[in-house]
Amino acid sequence: MKCFLDWNNVASNPGSRYVSSKTHLTKLFRSGNTYGLMYSLKCPSRLHSTKEHLRKKRTVAPSSTENEELSQLLKLYKNNKIRTTKYSLLSFLPKNLFEQLHRFANVYFIFLAALNFFTVVEAFQPEIALVPIILVLTVTAVKDIWEDYRRFKSDHFINRLVCQVYSSKQKAYIDQCWKDVRVGDFVRLSCNEIIPADMLLLYSSDPRGVCYIETANLDGETNLKQRQVVLDLPLQGAELNLESFHSRIECENPNNDLSRFRGYMEHPNGVRVGLHNNNLLLRSCTIRNTETVVGIVVYAGHETKAMMNNSGPRYKRSHLERRLNTDVLWCVLLLIIMCLTGAIGHGLWLKNLKDPVFEVDGETSPALAGFYVFWTMIIVLQVLIPISLYVSIEIVKLGQIYFIHNDLALYNEQLDSRIQCRALNITEDLGRIQYLFSDKTGTLTENKMVSCFSRVCVCLSAQAREVVPDPELVRKLSWLCSPTLPLSDGSSGTPSSLEVTYITDFFLALAICNSVVVSSPSQPRHMVTRTPLKSLEEIKLMFQRFSFSPFSALSPPLIKGSPRSFTSRLFTNGASDSDDELLYEAESPDEAALVHAAQAYHCTLRGRSAESLLVDLPGIGSLAVQLLHILPFDSNRKRMSVVVRHPLSGQVVVYTKGADSVIMDLSETPKGAEQAQEIYSHIREQTQKHLDSYARDGLRTLCISKKILEEEEYEVWLKRQLLAESSIENREELLLESAQRLETNLTLLGTTGIVDRLQEEVPETIEALQRAGIKVWVLTGDKKETAINIAYACKLLRPNDQLLTASCSLTVLTAAGDHEESSLGSAAGFVLVIDGRTLDWALQEELKSDFLELSCRCNAVICCRSTPLQKSQVVRLVRDQLGVMTLAVGDGANDVSMIQVADVGIGISGQEGMQAVMSSDFAISRFKHLSKLLLVHGHWCYSRLANMILYFIYKNVMYVNLLFWYQFFCGFSGSVMSNSWVLILFNLLFTSVPPLIFGVLDRDTPADTLMELPELYRVAQTSKVYVPYMFWVTVLDAFYQSLVCFFVPYFALAGSDVGALSFGSPINASALLIILLHQVIESRTLTWIHMLVLVLSGGSYFGFVLLFSLFCVSCSPPTNPLGVETLQMSQPLFYIVCALTTVMALLPRYTHPRPHVHCGKFTHKTYTTSGAGVPGEVGRLLIYGLTFFKEALFVCEMKLQHICISG
User: Fold this and answer.
1) Binding-site positions
2) In this prediction, what percent of the chain has a pLDDT beyond 90?
3) What H or E segment, with its residue span, contains residue 214?
4) 1156/737 Cα distance (integer angstroms)
5) For 790-806, what is the mean pLDDT?
6) pLDDT recorded at residue 259
7) What is the distance between the alpha carbons of residues 606 and 615, in angstroms, rounded to a whole number?
8) How far, in Å, CA of 783 to CA of 497, rounded?
9) CA 69, chain centre distance (Å)
10) Which residues form the P-type ATPase C-terminal domain (predicted)?
11) Beta 904-908 vs 886-890: how paired, if at all?
């Protein structure tokens, strides 16, 4: 839709100088007053085609509109009914089956079951071959339908919630279910009600046209957010007349950006009003502190921002899982080799068979028979592929997450917060971290502020709010309350009026340049009603009468004094106090700290509305400051501004606070009297000194400035600002350009320093992580000096380290401490400090490798003045180029990008909202929890899963080889020496549970030892628990045990008349005992749970085979298992063979112990190895022996160092 915009700028009306710009524009649009600006819009009367229109933008009108085209358009939008279920009663069976067939494991089992129905390749009963796949599909389907039923119940409850929707037929609000709400409906909500859909705020019972919402259901943040009624709507307070509402809304199509909403509202007279995010009430938020609001629905159901952000748990593939996929392919290769061996062997056996004493199919050629046997062997040896391992790993990870989630050491009692595990499948990666990238503010520090100012020292706790003002500044501010204002130049110790003006403007800026919401216990509606003792007109006339304007700041070259009678009357009558305790709810702790600090100097923010602020000034009392515009902070500008009309001078003033590097560049010496320039030069010089001092002390610095606008200059800027606000396309770019145009030629007022104290145990945590071999990098947006100071405080930078400072202008090598000191301590290292501008150059393609090489040679790297994009680029560079495991930890929205790029992202639920937590894999409340999470749980999870994977491979290969060795004695025919039920259930049931229990509960080293000796984390990584060659070592181990398990019974029963099932009975029993005892020897922790599971596994096997042999006559044709097991178990030879086989198979594990760390002491424990005489066994013994002998010496050395340090 093309619109032709015509701006008409008419001469300003002097009489309306003190009218708020927003209120004034509202009157203009209605009455066509000649003041200010007016525009007319000429738009096409008809919409484009429906489909084309829907693709470009969304048009919303009241659902009762008489416009047929708009009415049809509204019907095309989705309703408010939500459905998060995947299935219906009719679609469940086919859809669930289709989804399960996407898994390779299920396709593999179905293929084998189908293959077994062909008689020529049949290995055992076709019905039995269906048992594994039916069991797997059924269990998965039951799990899926249970999860879907829970979603269905949740959807049903939400859809049946009731809200009040306006009915044009009944001319009243009626109760209606959420699911029946549609785009264009008017919805009325009361306090504490949940918003059913994304609505544009049209009415609020608050006379200021604002309401407050809590977004905890959306993003976890509990601080209240203020929302504002659309500009140019009727005055609030009286009920909105919906019958007369005929405006049309044009907005962007549905998207998941919670912080952005662009569009405009077009009234019937053609006037357009820009819409922004503060006009939008989001679904699932809660109305607070507002009696009634009315809105029109613009997005409903699955098109709301809340539903579009509902993405479920994060999924990442762990390094261990990628390694496992390779090993599964090796298992496939082994299976093919074994099946080819059987096929070739069977073909040769048939070819060389002469005068057989049993019936042989002579019509089939040996080559074709070998081909059939190949597929038969695929069915028989199917368990060689550890498909069930994937399911077992998921179960084990859920168990590990349960114990991590319930670890009391990771619980924050003060915040009632525990660790959140948002990514369910990368727990083992916590044990392989090599690089840690950390934010500073709120991550290493408390983000609970202590504030200092130029000429001020304020100690402020974000919780206690105990403020100790600077006596010198209090004395200067006290002149505001004196009967006469000083006129001296300050040389006699008395401040000049210009200096008092600067100080007052400084604290006024601290009080109002923010988005803080004010409330009090007695008035919870966030607006403290106080009547100023002097009206604005009276104060203006008084200053005009005496030609005295001390707050106009640098406007006249000379400042006249005021008579004693006037000042006495003004300041004495204006003094007022209030005993009400004010509550400030801020989006960041910095804002709250600065407002509290201003309050300590009697510059108190008492109330806020959409168009005004109520501020107490010392000696004057309460004044209403008209708020014209707020230019919020963004990472590009690095500053925030408010445009107000000064309560005393009536001038339009811009107050700006932001990063010192930005504000100092934008400020300039004002033009005017020589005295004013001298004072300003002195302020700038002192401000720079304070900035340097604060940075050396590790404070976060902000600069405060202001700018006075002429009315004509403000009107020109206002036109462009309104145009930018009403734009849909490129709205952010236009707003940025408008803000940058305003924030120039600033007058510097002073600086603030925010003392951000370290969290508890941060130095100890970083020291432990470094001892564990993890390199720690700090990526922060603070000044270089501040970052270095924090690095000293948290022991990232030690006294004997040397600083390597890289900047665009120079590269400096400095010592961080005395060289004499360094000779007494450990070897000195390098710490690289690089700023954001230099980092831009270092991240260029041709310089990346050099920067990375330099960084790798340093003990730590500190990137200061870095942007969110640079943080993510640094993490990606290290991760991709070095191929290491990376972890990023942060607490704010500026850390989200690096958290998502890292292999493991950890969010800290701190003072800067929940954006980092919502984007993370794990969420903790304190930085100190990293040590327990990585050094203990990370170590355990990696060790457990690595050993469980190797155990699964060993178990499957060992049992499959028993069947493979038997082929050499049955003509490679694919026959087995066990009944098919035992063959199927051996891995599916009898030996499946113990690995799960050991994978969840096993602890190779106690938690206290891992925390005391962080070096064990590094030793576990270098010990190569699960590396490529370990797969082949494990396979050789399984081959050895299978040889023992098969040939000991073979030689024991040689020459007897036992049948195939009687021969297989001691082999199966021995294999079960070997596999279970192998697990016992491998484990480092044995509890009653372990023993119970082992007994139940063994008991289930023997109970099953006994019952099978007693009652099953024809369960496994053509063989007959009746009485076989009972006969075998009644003979002593059976137990002798089982015992001898088990001992011989596990003998190397008893004869080759290894040192094992336990509670800080060394104990000998039998080590898991293969059999004697096998080359792979010797190699494995040597490898493990050398590795753990080195580990033992290393741990002893660490213990000695620890004792020496303690002594």
Assistant:
1) 439-441, 591, 633, 657, 700, 780-782, 865, 871, 891, 894-895
2) 21
3) strand 210-214
4) 66
5) 83
6) 78
7) 6
8) 34
9) 44
10) 917-1151
11) parallel
Cis ω before 366 (30° cut-off from 0): no
Who contacts 629 (Cβ-Cβ below 8 Å, separation ≥6)? 21, 642, 643, 721
Cα-Cα-Cα-Cα dihedral of 926, 932, 934, 939, to 10°? -170
pLDDT tens string 1032-1080: 888 999 999 999 999 999 999 988 888 888 899 999 999 999 999 998 8
Cα distances from 227 to residues 209, 373, 882, in angstroms, run 9, 75, 47
Task: Specify the pLDDT at position 575.
Answer: 36
Whose tokens are 């090599």? That residue is 434
Single-letter code of the amino acid located at 333: L
pLDDT digits (tens, 9 = 90+) for 254-291: 988 877 888 889 888 888 888 888 899 999 889 988 88
Query: How confident is the model at residue 1123, as a pLDDT?
Result: 80
Q: How, if at all, do strands 904-908 and 922-924 pair?
A: parallel
Residue 670 has pLDDT above 70, yes or no: no
What's phi and psi for 706, nearest 5 deg?
A: -150, 165
Evaluate whether 637 touches 743 at the Cβ level (below 8 Å). Answer: yes
SS3 246: coil
Q: What are 205's two structure tokens?
A: 């019972």
**CA torsion, ordered 498, 501, 505, 507, to nearest 10 deg:** 110
Q: How far is CA 598 from the centre of its chain?
A: 34
CA–CA dist 992, 1096 (Å, integer): 11
Tell me, yes or no, if the pTM score tops 0.85.
no
Q: What is the pLDDT of residue 37?
A: 31
* Contact between residue 417 and residue 307 where contact means Cβ atoms under 8 Å apart: no
The predicted pLDDT at position 1204 comes to 41
Higher-pLDDT residue of 1181 and 632 is 632
DSSP 998-1045: HHHH--SS-HHHHHH-THHHHHHHHTTSS-HHHHHHHHHHHHHHHHHH
Grouping H, G, I as helix, E, B as strand and the rest as coil, residue 560 is coil
Contact 230, 726 (CB under 8 A): no
In degrees to the nearest 10, what's the CA dihedral of 182, 188, 189, 194?
Answer: 0
Q: What is the 3-state secondary structure (H, E, C) of 467-526?
A: CCCCHHHHHHHHHHHCCCCCCCCCCCCCCCHHHHHHHHHHHHHHHHCCCCEEECCCCCCC
Tell me how crowded residue 1132 is: count the other CB atoms within 10 A of its CB. Answer: 7
Active site residues: 439
Long-range contacts of 48-55 (CB under 8 A, 24+ apart): 48/1, 50/76, 54/253, 55/253
Measured CA to CA, the distance from residue 827 to residue 802 in angstroms comes to: 11
| Distances in whole angstroms, Cα of residue 266 to Cα of each of 48, 77, 699 | 17, 20, 49
Residue with the bigger pLDDT between 115 and 912: it is 115
Cβ-based neighbour number of residue 561 at 10 Å: 16
CA distance 1137 to 1071: 12
Cα R_g (the chain), whole angstroms: 39
| β strands within 668-787, DSSP E | 700-709, 747-758, 775-779
d(CA 1044, CA 1054): 15
* Residue count (the chain): 1207
Per-residue tokens: 917: 């937590």
Instruction: Give the per-residue pLDDT at 179.
Output: 93
Looking up tokens 């209030």 gives 578
Which residues have CB under 8 Å from 65's CB, separation 6+?
Answer: 71, 74, 184, 246
Q: Is the pLDDT of residue 1165 over 50?
A: no
Give the CA distances from residue 570 to residues 14, 535, 623, in Å, rounded to whole numbers and listed in that order: 26, 12, 13
pLDDT in tens, 982-1005: 888 888 889 989 999 989 998 888
> How far, in Å, CA of 891 to CA of 602, rounded?
33
What secondary structure letter does DSSP report for 301?
Answer: G
Residue 188: its pLDDT value, please?
A: 94
> What integer best gives the mean pLDDT of the chain?
76
